Each structure stands twice: as structure tokens, then as C-alpha cells.
């Protein structure tokens, strides 16, 4: 906390009081401000005294990402005058991108495509076992992949601009900042400023990766913001962090043939089921990813390397250190909201990653944006409700392990039998509440196409799925998902869950 | 398909509590009875196909069905992935050749390991296994004949018939039996089938044609009338449309009249186009008949036991407890009348039967809402009612169909055609809009469909499905994003992320 405080003010003593982001000071300063009437004036800001006569827009949305765009498109349906302000502050490396937010540009989309590139590398190896006459070693071209990925992203950026235009949503590539009640200043990348007023505002600015604050981090390291458009192959990479961002990046980098090490301070995938997290780590290690556990980087410096061989000189090969966002604290400026996404200012709302204590997922932001617009403009009362299909350890769900039956099994995807790989590595588990008819409260799968498998079960969980219903459902054969219809061994029993074939 | 035992002495008879005939996958579950302390015997025998193909313990699924089919389907899919890989930066020289021999050997080896696994499992559970062909002597006794002609007798308190079915040969077509093969043979061929004509419109026909095309063979499918009879017809059209635009040739509305062998060894097939009445002919290396299956009841001597069969289908008539017309004789799986011809239903039926006979259970099978997947090049997963079934049952005004054309993210960089990637959810129109059926056409359709099948079993409504947050980015999330109804007439093409 001291570190965060030192970033805001040179004062080292606590308490330090801030009112509306303005530092007043300690006890003495607050008292003085009150006696002089300054405190009351500050608190009164945003009151009706300072309102514009009429508003330029019904709704100004700051942030053109998953949440912001969903809200914009929905609000436009009800003939509201909407503006979206989207601006990408370049990374320390200078990377920037277009409309669409994190998911489209530096998140879900490029991540999944690069994940697919890695999976295809494995497919090339498998295909030989299936009779395809592919060379034993196939090289991967980073630039070709990034170009293809960026082209697709570009088409999405374009698609969003067209969609906004069609729905008559005004879009400006400008950085929005509040300047007074109902007023916002938009600054474009040339420095030109414009002021707009709106009846309501929606903050959907999302997040950016955090740097660790060690010497050399901003100069020599990159983040997920840079990786997906890196113009050169990252080469031998150190990934610092243990979040899903870290592991996913490390995973696909290794999958396309790079030498990858992951530096983990403590545990993997904090907040996720640790049983599953460890299995993931194990699998990655078995497949060539190195892990350095219980270490943190303290300094990064450039080592001048010149690899010379008889034919050409490779210049500028630097060790790329990849830093990824670890966890975040409440001091990072997240916005707390009510369950209707309203901030402490009645006409300002917030959705998406910028929120405190909410799941940072594109579909959540999209749903929040859409529902918010419906509540504001279409008389709806529906709020966001989430299925916790993402693995939560039974502890967090309030069940002690005594009250839960955990059924589990290894399984071997049929497609992996012919290339003889990874037997008894894929794993399925359901957590059932003994006190509620063995209702399935947790679903976990480690295996190929996990997302495709999990989605339907998430819907089933929402419908109150019980173990008995699971057992009575016929499996589709032969697919991975069917394993869930034949789970019979509980963890408690200690029975063997090794698979021996069909 | 028989039960028999080598006996201690001439004329002596073993008494077994339960003897099951047929596919050991089913029997292994019935062998759960052995775990309940009963003496169980399984008798399995494979009558060679007309081509001479035979196989080991495990039944159709393991040897000439689901397993080898899915592996060859995977081989075909990998061919597509090799092409995709280039777009994703992999420097793989194209085009890549495929070796049937290598694939067949790998597939056959895996199947053999499963045969072995089954034998070990039976042994572990103390189930006696006999590789003999069985037929009834009376309602408690069965006679079995070994490959060498040795006869033995076996008697039991309870008998389970699980003999399944075999592919039908259209014997009315000249040359069909002599020169054609079936799914019993295709997975065991040592040499590539080459240019192949697949006759039939079943999922067997389309799946085989699909993977043959995918590994680079010249493949034609001859369909008499409609593809995938019994399945949702809109989905079936999309399946064949995809195949047609990816290299499979279709001869619609045609029936073969003759198969001749040419001097060089190739096959000449003559057929009639039913609309024009014209005849046509072409030459193939292989003709694969996929025109339906017949139950394996003909050689069982059922009349000696009193077990009745359906006059139309020849399948064994059973009640809800899987009992035949003879109380202590049961029938499960493909051989039983009115049952879906699926491995998982057979397995579950076997397990439940054993529990009813020897455990203290009274649980019956629920055959409603059984999910399935057709493993054509673009896979089709479905559960519940087809659109036409729903309309027939409830009336058009009471049915609401939500649908979407979507594009799998992985198709983008790979520049693949996603025209037939389509989802539809058939619901009741009245709130809360109960989901009657889900149909998914796209990659990994089985993985997508399984979980939703559970939701439907729990009585999922459209509203509940829509309140489920999507997993992004996947294909299955498109199911929980279905917003456009057919009735609205709006364009159901999904664009962008949200």
C-alpha cells in the first residue's frame, strides 16, 4: 500500500485524505479545508448547479471493447444518441491497435488463433501415425502466423466500425476524461480536444497488463499487449506470471517450437481449482515448458549478443522477457458498482474488466452491456446472473469436502491412441453436493476442446443437474465428453481411475 | 453368436446362471452380474463376411463400427489440418500423400488391443468366454459349434441375446454379393480401396464416404432418395452440401442395377436415374454397400426357444424390461426391436438389466432424448426432436426455432468455408420455451452436444440456456447466443464477438 501511495503523493505519513481524487492531506489539512469552506465545495461538485442545458448525447461510452460495444449497439436499438470513445494508449514498446478492445485485439481472439497454431503443430506430428507422409520436423514461421492473425483482427476492427456506423453510433478514436458534471473531454492522438455532454456515461475502459516495477521492465520486457503483433519471433522466452494469460502464452509459444520458461512466484492459476491447476502445470512440463518456481525477477538488463557463423551475422537478438499481469489489488483503481452496474454517481455506470470483484470475461462484459442498455432504455429489470462454470474450489463454494462427493476419472481421447500419446492425462471431475440430492455444483475437464465440452454442461448446471441425471444420460460415442456420463469412482474411495481402453 | 462350453464329460451339462450371446461390450456390462456373485458366460462368434473378414471380441462398435470409423475420420480431419497449418505459419510441403496401409495398420492394431482388453476384463471379473457359434436347443439350453465343428451344450437360468446386426447386401442386384464390400470389410482392408462407390444414404454411408474423400480418394455416393432418413432433413441437407462442396460426388435419385468385374479387375457399375429413367455406368475399384443392417437372428434357431421376432424387421420383440416373449430370455442392443442402434444405449441397457436381475434395482432404460453424432467431415450432433418431428407433434404455431450460421474462429486464418456451420434449437413457443431439440453442425459436434443433452434431460428452457454465459471463443457458445428465430425471417448469420 505504501508503494501505491508513494506513486500518488510524496507524503509518507498516513492518513492521507483524497476527495474526488484531489489530495487534501492529513488530519490538520482536512480540518483547515473544512473551516475554509473548500471541503464542502469539493464535495458539492457534480451537483445540479453545474449542469449543461441540454445534452449532446444520451449516452457516452468510454471504451470500445466487448462491454462498451455491446452496450452501444443495444442502446442504439432504442433510438438513443450514443457515442463511443475508444483510445489505445501505446504500450512502452509502442504497440497500439484498433476498435474492439482487449478481447479482439490482444486477448481471446489472437490467443485462440495462436493456440490453434500450436495445436496444428501437434496435429502435424499425429498425422504421420495416421498415414500422412509429412516431414518429421516442420519449421514454424512466426511472421506468417502473426500477419494472418493481425489480418483477421483488422477485419474485426473494420467490422465493428461498420456495425457502429450502421447503427448510427458515433465513434471517435479519442481519449475520454471527465471534466465536470455530465461533461467529458475527448483528446485524439494529435492532441485535438473536444468537449461533449451526455445524460449518462458508461465506463468500459477495461484493463492493461501490469508491469512488475523492477529495473529494466519497461525497457526490455513485453506483455500480452505486444505479443500478438510482435514483428519478430520472440525466440527463447521467459514468461513471468502464473495466470491463465501466462500459461496460455507459454503454452502456444512452446507449441510452435520455442524454448519457453515460466517463472512462478507461488501457485499456478490462483483462484482456480488447484487440483486442475497442478495437472495443467504437469502436462505443460511434460511437453517441454520449463518452470522456475518460487522465484521473482528483480532486474532485467540487455545482453548484447552477436551470433556469428560463417555466412551471416544475426544482429540484435535479444532475450525477450515477457511479463504478464499477475493478480491485482484494490489499489489499482477498479470501480465498485451496484448490482445494476451503477457507480456512486447516479448517471455514471461501469461494466467489464474495470469493475471490482467481477469475472474478467468477454461474454460477461457483453451480457452486462446489453442488459444495462435494456434496463436504461427498454424498461427491463433483468440483471446479470452468472453460472460459475469456471472451476471454483469446493472450499470457495462453501462446501467442506465432507459434504461433497467428487467423482473423477482419467480418460484417453480416442484420437490420441493411434499416436500413442498422453494416456491417463486427460481428467474429468464433477463435484456434487451431498446435502442437495447430489446436485452437480462443479464441473472440471482437462483435455482437448475443453471449452466445447464445458459449455453445454454449464447450461445443464444452470438447470439444476444432479449426479443421477448425469448417470441416466446416454453418452455420445466415441467422444471425450461422454466420460461424464459414466463417472463412478469418488475421490474419497481412493479407487483407481486409470483407463485401460474402451 | 452362440453359447457353448467344453464339458467335463460326454453328455454332462454345465449349469450357468447367465449366459450372454453377442458383443462383449454389452456382455461385459452384463458381466457386472458376475461381480454380483453369479456365474456368467459370454459367447461370441463372428461369422466371416462374404469377403472373408473376421474379427475378435468386442462386437460391431469396437471392430467394424464407432472405433475404426472415428479413427479414420480423424485421419481425414488431419488431412484438413495439414492444409490449415500452412496458413498458421507451419512450413509443410504440400500436397501431402496418404498411405492407406499405414493408417489401416494403426487402426487395426488399436482395435486388436481393445479385443485383448475385453478378454482381460472378462477374465478379471471371472466371466467365462467362449468363441463359439450358438443356437437354441430349448428355452434353457444352447448348442455351440466351434470353428472346427466341435459341438457343446450350455444351459442357463437366464439368457441374454445381444447378437446385434450385420450389413445388408442388396442381393437382388447382380454382382452385389460377389464384388461388393460393406462396413464389415472396409476397416480391415490391407490395400487402399481406391476409387470407391458408396451406395446408401445412411450415416454409415456418409461417414465412410466422408473419410475416404478426406484421405484423398475419388469417392461417389449413390443415394436412392433422401440422405439420413429419420434425421432432421434441413440438417441432413447441410451435411451433404458440405460434402459435395468438399470433393465427394453425389448421384442423387439413382439405384444400381448391376455390378460387373472387368478383365483388369476393376468394377463396372450400372445404375438407373429414377427421374430421367436413363441408365449410366462408371468404373470403380471398390463398391461399398451401406444400405441398412439386418439383425443377427436368422441362425439362432429362435423357434426352439419360443422367442418371437418382428415379422417386418426380424428383430427380437422385447418389453420395457428387455424381456422377450420368454420370461427368462432377454434381448438388448441392435438385435432388439424398437431400440436405438447405438453403443452407449446397449451398454447402459446391459448394465441396468444385470442390476435388475441380480442387484436390487428396478431401474429401466430411458430412451428419450438420446444424443447422437454423425461423424461426417462436418460433424452433426443432435439431441431431442427434429424440427419436423416437433411440428408434427405440437403444430407449427406452437414451435419456435432459433438458429444461427456461425464461423468457427479457427476457420478464419485457415480460410475455410463455413457455409454449413449452423445451429438450431427447436423449442416450444409458449414461455418458458422448453427446448425440444438441439442440432449442431460444426467441428467437434459430439463434444458440443453432450452437455446440452444433459440440459435437455433436466428440462432446460430457452431462457435458461440464454442465461448461461458463453465460453469465449468457442463454437459451442453460439448455442447460448441463439437470438434469431426462424419465424422472424431475420438473417441468422452471426457477426463479430457480440
Automatic annotation (TrEMBL), chain A:
GO terms for cellular component: cytosol; mitochondrion. Its cofactor is FAD. Residues 57-369 form the FAD/NAD(P)-binding domain. Residues 405-486 form the Pyridine nucleotide-disulphide oxidoreductase dimerisation domain. Pfam families: Pyr_redox_2, Pyr_redox_dim. Gene3D superfamilies: 3.30.390.30, FAD/NAD(P)-binding domain, Glutaredoxin. Coiled coil: none annotated. InterPro entries: FAD/NAD-bd_sf, FAD/NAD-binding_dom, FAD/NAD-linked_Rdtase_dimer_sf, GSHR/TRXR-like, Pyr_nucl-diS_OxRdtase_dimer, Pyr_OxRdtase_I_AS, Thioredoxin/glutathione_Rdtase. Its EC number is 1.11.1.2, 1.8.1.9. It is an enzyme of class 1 (oxidoreductase). GO terms for biological process: cell redox homeostasis; cellular response to oxidative stress; glutathione metabolic process. GO terms for molecular function: flavin adenine dinucleotide binding; glutathione-disulfide reductase (NADPH) activity; NADPH peroxidase activity; thioredoxin-disulfide reductase (NADPH) activity. It catalyses: H2O2 + NADPH + H(+) = NADP(+) + 2 H2O; [thioredoxin]-dithiol + NADP(+) = [thioredoxin]-disulfide + NADPH + H(+). Keywords: Disulfide bond, FAD, Flavoprotein, NADP, Oxidoreductase, Redox-active center, Selenocysteine. Reduces disulfideprotein thioredoxin (Trx) to its dithiol-containing form. Homodimeric flavoprotein involved in the regulation of cellular redox reactions, growth and differentiation. Contains a selenocysteine residue at the C-terminal active site that is essential for catalysis. Also has reductase activity on hydrogen peroxide (H2O2). Belongs to the class-I pyridine nucleotide-disulfide oxidoreductase family. This is Thioredoxin reductase 1, cytoplasmic.
Automatic annotation (TrEMBL), chain B:
NAD(+) binds at residues 200-207, 292. Belongs to the class-I pyridine nucleotide-disulfide oxidoreductase family. PANTHER family: GLUTATHIONE REDUCTASE, THIOREDOXIN-DISULFIDE REDUCTASE. Its cofactor is FAD. It is an enzyme of class 1 (oxidoreductase). NCBIfam families: TGR. Binds 1 FAD per subunit. PROSITE patterns: PYRIDINE_REDOX_1. Residues 370-481 form the Pyridine nucleotide-disulphide oxidoreductase dimerisation domain. It comes from the Eukaryota. Its EC number is 1.8.1.9. It comes from Propithecus coquereli (Coquerel's sifaka). The active site is at residue 472. This is thioredoxin-disulfide reductase (NADPH). It catalyses: [thioredoxin]-dithiol + NADP(+) = [thioredoxin]-disulfide + NADPH + H(+).
